[in-house]
Design a protein that fits this description.
Layout (H helix, E strand, L loop, with lengths): L1 E4 L5 H14 L9 H9 L6 E7 L2 E11 L8 E9 L8 H15 L4 E4 L6 H9 L17
Parallel strand pairs: 4-5
Antiparallel strand pairs: 1-2, 2-3, 3-4
Helix pairs in contact: 1-2
Length: 148
């Protein structure tokens, strides 16, 4: 298995995986719009970076992240938005490899920490994050404002 940063050639597989993620969370299992993905990841001002876990040509999973500023003082943090391992590749160390790659990316970018959220009703994810030696943090409440 190798972890690589996604390129414009990966838009189609990212689109399919986004559909799988929607299905996993109970939404409509429709692929993501390739043009929106291309604009978000590969235009002049990318919104995120995607790491892909591969076994040969097969994509096993992805991690999508952005850098946030400020973190502590004037530090930067790496914010993991999505960690997803495709069903056939689960329990094979893919998520752990992606998390390790995220730590490497954060260190390379000079970040002081890696941060993420997890759904309270996803016990498998919560158990996995606990195996990393992390504990849930108190003190923040998550908000979301939808735009028209």
């Amino acid at each position: 298995m190798r972890i690589e940063q996604a390129t414009p050639d990966d838009v189609d597989v990212i689109s399919v995986i986004l559909g799988e993620i929607e299905d996993y969370y109970g939404g409509t299992a429709a692929p993501g719009d390739p043009e929106q993905i291309r604009a978000a990841l590969f235009d002049g001002r990318p919104a995120a970076t995607v790491l892909l876990a591969r076994d040969g040509e097969q994509v096993l999973g992805l991690a999508s992240y952005s850098l946030l500023w400020p973190a502590v003082g004037a530090d930067t943090s790496l914010y993991l938005k999505e960690l997803y391992v495709r069903e056939a590749a689960r329990r094979r160390g893919v998520a752990g490899a992606l998390m390790e790659a995220l730590r490497t990316e954060a260190a390379r970018a000079g970040c002081s920490r890696v941060e993420w959220t997890a759904d309270a009703d996803n016990p498998l994810a919560l158990a996995f994050y606990q195996t990393l030696g992390t504990e849930p943090r108190d003190g923040k409440i998550f908000y979301r404002a939808e735009l028209p």
